[in-house]
Design a protein that fits this description.
The protein is built from 26 helices and no strands. The protein has about 525 residues and is mainly α. It is globular and about 65 Å long.
Length: about 525
């Protein structure tokens, strides 16, 4: 018999059964060694994937990608335009060249990569995209203009080596005073007067060391005087560019348009055509007011645009005066340097048509080396070779624009639209000629722009019953307004080699200067030139 009193104690057994039913109890010693998760394999995969992601993310420089954003955008836009249907009347090669020019301009302005990299892209693009022979591209890179830029920078190094830049700077400051505005005005005036007769390339190369001297004596840290540097260096380049159109000897573009006038319109048997046989004095009468009107405005525009860190260079001028006094009288090496440079200027004036500007410049640099006035180590470290390459690539691309017919297609199309819009309006027609020339001159050298545009402009001016003489002056003078990039003009390329300026600086002041020049040119063509019988 069993009863309540005799019943076995089942509590512990039932408790163990309940625990067994619920699952094994936690045991630290056992479970710390044998514990595992049901999805441990998946977790390991996720963990390894996350680690790989973190490693990949750490390897990507987000800041670099953001810095190169305009490069990426330019590449995407460029290849999209190259893949688009070719416009009527334009070859596919011409389309590629125009797109390459647009891409180069965007990269010049935004500067997401070093500018010499853009030059290398142009070289590679001509071979890969246009299928040109690499030897032909290499030949197009080394022109007389490129030799001139190279030689000019070498000559500037020699001038600095002999410390002549300080003496020239002190002479200018003695005339202008220590105000930044008046120093800028003095530089523009001196550069303009010289560039009217011996060529803007020459003057820019000669005056660059002078500008750098004034900047470096103000501060040894370029970032602290960036705006001041922009004012002084752009005073050099704009002084050269606005005066390069004042005389026939101021630039190749002037000689080109003079030859076109003679070839197209001059007839010795017809006295009414004798006005197209342009002489030196008549050109000055037409073009020199453009320089005089812009002369005071250039410095004012530079001061308002860049707001220099200091408005007075008294300290820098004091240091300059002290350094010149400590150096004592001019040494024989200094006089010899001046003599060689004077010989180079004479060579540019007399022998440029036979030897070329570049060969004369290189010969001058060679003379400095032979006479021991400068060492090759000084030239190698003082010349910005990347800027030489940049200018060479820009010229090469301009040659392809002409050979593929892209430049002529662009000019014909734009002028056709102009003729339809302007109608019989003389002002509208002249404004359109100026704007188109400015546009084209920002993609190739001024001489090439005039060579391509002038035949089209002159023929259209006759068809539209406008004066070809005025149309020619508009084309020549407007071609000097390519201010947007460092490669637009040799004078701009030379001052960019100093290292003080950015590409954005050229667009910032260049757009304003283009507008100012356009307004003054329209005023001169509307009110002044008609008084001369044009």
């Amino acid at each position: 018999m069993t009863g309540p009193d005799n019943a076995p104690d089942l509590g512990p057994m039932m408790g163990q059964a309940a625990l067994a039913a619920e699952g094994p109890s936690f045991n630290l010693a056992r479970d710390s060694l044998q514990a595992h998760e049901p999805v441990a394999g998946l977790t390991r995969v996720r963990r390894r994937g996350y680690l790989r992601y973190r490693k990949f993310a750490n390897a990507i420089d987000i800041a670099l990608i953001w810095k190169r954003r305009w490069f990426i955008v330019t590449m995407i836009l460029g290849f999209a335009l190259m893949s688009a249907p070719t416009p009527s009347g334009l070859t596919h090669d011409g389309q590629i060249v125009l797109v390459m020019s647009l891409m180069a301009t965007l990269l010049f302005i935004t500067e997401p990569v070093p500018l010499p990299s853009v030059a290398l892209l142009i070289v590679v693009g001509q071979v890969v995209l246009l299928g040109l022979d690499s030897t032909k591209v290499a030949k197009s890179l080394m022109t007389d203009s490129v030799l001139f830029i190279m030689g000019s920078l070498m000559l500037a190094v020699a001038v600095v080596k002999q410390k002549l830049d300080k003496r020239i700077a002190l002479a200018i400051v003695r005339m202008t005073g220590t105000s930044v505005f008046w120093i800028s005005f003095g530089i523009v005036a001196v550069c303009g007067f010289l560039a009217s007769f011996i060529g803007e390339h020459t003057v820019a190369a000669m005056m660059l060391p002078v500008g750098v001297t004034l900047i470096s004596l103000t501060s040894n840290e370029p970032k602290k005087v960036h705006n001041l540097a922009a004012v002084i260096l752009f005073s050099i380049s704009f002084g050269c560019s606005i005066a390069g159109v004042t005389t026939p000897s101021g630039g190749a573009r002037n000689a080109i348009i003079i030859s076109y006038w003679k070839d197209f319109f001059y007839d010795p048997t017809k006295p009414e055509t004798w006005r197209y046989l342009m002489d030196y004095i008549t050109w000055i009468i037409y073009a020199f007011p453009m320089f005089l009107l812009r002369l005071p405005l250039v410095s004012l525009l530079l001061i308002l645009t860049f707001q220099p860190e200091t408005r007075d260079l008294s300290r820098a001028v004091t240091r300059l005066r002290t350094q010149v006094k400590l150096e004592g009288p001019m040494k024989m090496s200094g006089w010899l340097t001046i003599l060689v440079f004077a010989a180079v200027i004479v060579g540019w004036t007399i022998y440029s048509s036979t030897l070329g500007l570049g060969i004369v410049a290189i010969a001058g640099a060679l003379a400095y080396l032979v006479l021991g006035l400068v060492r090759w180590e000084d030239i190698n470290s003082g010349v910005n070779w990347g800027i030489v390459l940049l200018y060479a690539a820009a010229i090469s691309l301009g040659v392809e624009m002409k050979e593929t017919g892209a430049a002529e297609w662009l000019a014909n199309g734009a002028l056709h639209v102009v003729q339809e819009i302007a109608g019989n309006s003389t002002v509208a027609f002249e404004a359109a000629i100026s704007l188109i020339t400015v546009l084209v001159s920002n993609t190739m050298t001024a001489g090439a722009a005039v060579a391509v545009l002038s035949p089209v402009v002159l023929k259209m001016s006759v068809a539209a019953h406008h004066d070809p003489l005025i149309a020619g002056f508009l084309t020549a003078i407007s071609s000097a307004s390519g201010y947007l990039t460092p490669a637009a003009q040799p004078a701009f390329t030379i001052i960019y080699a100093s290292g003080y300026l950015k590409s954005a600086d050229f667009f910032k002041i260049g757009s304003r200067m283009m507008l100012l020049s356009f307004i003054i040119l329209m005023a001169v063509s509307t009110f002044y030139w008609p008084m001369l019988g044009g």
